[in-house]
TrEMBL record:
Protein name: Phosphotransferase
Pfam family, one: Fructosamin_kin
Keyword entries, A-Z: Transferase
Basic residues bias: start-end ranges: 67-87
InterPro entries: Fructo-/Ketosamine-3-kinase, Kinase-like_dom_sf
Originating species: Lentzea alba
Basic and acidic residues bias: start-end ranges: 88-103
């Protein structure tokens, strides 16, 4: 369920490494750091925007964020505005039987949203729970438009958690999927990414599926010509890979640094896809200790040569989806990503 965007006068809230000023769209930008340490990542010039799920999300200044410069400051995730939180909810059925919970008396979060969104999110959360993967909130109930999950206490990003997260994310992707575009078991064919529709239609190969299901439908809605990138998609896609098990909306706001020292994944748009798509989304809006996350990931599941050059191609989908929902500067960013993808 989407939260309402901030209204009223600007206010600043300390969010880990960032101090973000929340203003109506069009307010002044702020500088956000993607991490710290010897390989802390380049900074982003951002301005407050609204994420597909209604949460404030910074706008990237460029379609591809190259990390590597040393930055200082306390790392942290972006402000996460909660919707419909209620503590003490009962487990009325439809939960994840046989899966460990956060604790014996964990606080619970109740979300009220459409039945379709509830079914998609619950199926995604269950599907993403894999041996050796990142921790995922337990689903206590998913009935009609009511979803009850564990509330994860927030902690502070740190280097060891980032390294562990990179390795666990690789394990999640390696768990695989039945096909590109396949929804999680029990998930609906038509899901959402934020407030935009997202069709999960299985296909045998990634290039054609990505062009027809993740680029063309959104480009048509905002009148962006993607003829060339779709015609060259097989050439631009890189070496063939098997379908990966994707979170699907892996921006930093859905990467929760828990008080237990673990990195949790929340609010998925899960489906079978290319693992570089999740990693490109993670880079699009920045992530604490990003270089360390990517380095640890590659220890477990090395990426194919040329993956850095393919980042703009994979970022084209979320940028087009943002353009559909919010317009504004996202259109120019989508065009820049397409240009960069064609340039290779």
């Amino acid at each position: 369920m989407a939260c309402r965007r901030p209204r009223g006068p600007a206010r600043a809230e300390d969010v880990g490494c960032q101090r973000i000023s929340h203003r109506p769209r069009g307010g002044a930008g702020v500088l956000a750091s993607s991490g710290r340490g010897s390989a802390g990542g380049a900074g982003l010039r951002t301005c407050p925007r609204v994420a597909p799920d209604g949460r404030s999300r910074p706008r990237p200044a460029a379609p591809f964020v190259r990390s590597g410069r040393r930055r200082r400051g306390r790392a942290g995730s972006l402000l996460r505005r909660r919707c419909g939180v209620r503590r003490g909810a009962r487990d009325d059925g439809g939960g994840d039987a046989g899966v460990d919970r956060v604790g014996p008396r964990a606080a619970l979060r109740t979300k009220h949203q459409s039945p379709e969104a509830t079914a998609a999110e619950a199926a995604g959360l269950r599907w993403l729970r894999v041996d050796g993967g990142p921790p995922i909130p337990f689903v206590h109930e998913a009935t009609e438009g009511r979803l009850v999950i564990d509330e994860i206490p927030h902690g502070t990003p740190n280097l060891q958690a980032a390294v562990t997260f990179g390795r666990r994310l690789a394990a999640l992707h390696l768990a695989g999927a039945s096909a590109f575009g396949a929804p999680p078991p029990g998930g609906p064919r038509v899901a959402t990414i934020g407030t935009a529709p997202m069709v999960n239609e299985p296909a045998p190969s990634w290039p054609g599926w990505f062009a027809s299901q993740r680029i063309e439908p959104y480009a048509r809605r905002v009148d962006i010509d993607v003829t060339e990138v779709c015609a060259r998609i097989a050439e631009l896609a890189g070496p063939a890979e098997p379908p990966a098990r994707l979170h699907g909306d892996l921006w930093s706001g859905n990467v929760l640094w828990g008080a237990d020292g673990q990195v949790w994944l929340i609010d998925p748009a899960a489906h079978g896809g290319h693992r570089e798509s999740d990693l490109a989304m993670l880079q699009l809006f920045g992530c604490p200790f990003l270089d360390h996350v990517l380095g640890a990931y590659q220890e477990i599941a090395p990426l194919a040569d040329g993956w850095q050059a393919r980042v703009p191609l994979h970022q084209l989908f979320p940028l087009l989806a943002h353009t559909v929902m919010f317009g504004g500067g996202y259109r120019s960013e989508a065009l820049a990503a397409m240009t960069a993808a064609l340039r290779g």
